[in-house]
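Q&A log
Question type: sequence-to-structure
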Amino acid sequence: MNSVVEDLFTVTEKLHSLLLQPLPKEDDQRDGYIDEVEKLLSERQALIPALGRVTLTAEDKEKGRELVALNQEIEQRLADKQKQIKTDINNFKLKQKQNRKYDNPYDGPTLEGAFFDKRSI
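Response status: OK
Response body:
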């Protein structure tokens, strides 16, 4: 087998196994998790153009089919992780807004509406 196909398959398997793990709750661990995913994605991105320059054997083509199946699952899991991170960001923004409102309840528009003095119009 070609080393490019083997390397790509190895990196793809590492990425797949990493994405099978749940997203960590703590910020430091989450940042490390995201950095590792980005690193593996960039490694894959660097290896993919090299596939066009090599001659593929039957074994390489079989590995390619496995890579395509893994890639579909990776894409789904990446979309799920992205959705989870967006939800966490939206929840954080909502908490920030609620905390600001709690700290200064008289800031911003009131719910009662406005009072108009008929005599001064």
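Response note: DSSP finds three helices and no strands in the chain.
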